[in-house]
Design a protein that fits this description.
Elements lengths: L3 E2 L12 E2 L1 H30 L8 H26 L1 E2 L15 E6 L4 E7 L10 E3 L3 H6 L7 E6 L2 E11 L3
Parallel strand pairs: 1-7, 2-3, 5-6
Antiparallel strand pairs: 4-5, 4-8, 7-8
Length: 170
């Protein structure tokens, strides 16, 4: 019997706080760059703009103060993420099944193929080939093997995808 993946209930609405080792490294690099490069540069710009006098109509001052708040907010968020996220590394028991960190190639009935990776929600930003483990697609794919089908409820109705390949970065 195939399991349908669809809207989550209130108990499972919470975001899974997992991340791959590569994803954690990228978050740490972003945090380091913001704290050591962007924040000092922006602080310097704010100080320069403030030294010009009247701040009420000083666009440089207001823009850079706003940017400084954005940087500080992101730094605070990233520090909390780095502490709260659980790193999930590849383990041999995952082989042959779709689990966290897997690269999966799937194909629909029309022959349209997609290759994607199941990762944590913090890793999907600016990556079209990554999907969150909390997404309906990932939930439908989890624990399936090559040759099995995953049925996903979408706004356009049910979609069936056949698993063609599963790989892990080791």
């Amino acid at each position: 019997m195939l399991k349908l993946a669809g809207p989550k209930n209130s108990i499972t609405d919470m975001k899974t706080m997992w991340i791959t080792p590569e994803g954690l490294e990228k978050l740490k690099e972003e945090l380091d760059h913001l704290w050591k490069v962007e924040r000092p540069e922006t602080t310097q710009k704010v100080a320069w703009a403030a030294s010009l006098g009247d701040r009420s109509e000083n666009a440089d001052y207001h823009y850079n103060k706003k940017r400084l708040r954005e940087i500080d907010k992101r730094v605070h968020y990233l520090r909390k993420c780095v502490d709260d996220l659980k790193v999930i590394s590849y383990a041999p028991f995952q082989e042959g099944k779709v689990m966290f960190g897997a690269w999966v190639e799937i194909e629909n009935a029309k022959g349209h193929k997609i290759r994607l990776r199941v990762v944590g929600g913090e890793e999907i930003i600016q990556r079209r080939d990554y999907i969150s483990i909390d997404s309906p697609m990932a939930q439908a794919l989890l624990k399936k093997e090559v040759g099995e089908e995953a049925i996903v409820q979408t706004p356009n109705g049910l979609m069936t995808w056949k698993i063609r390949n599963i790989e892990y970065k080791k």
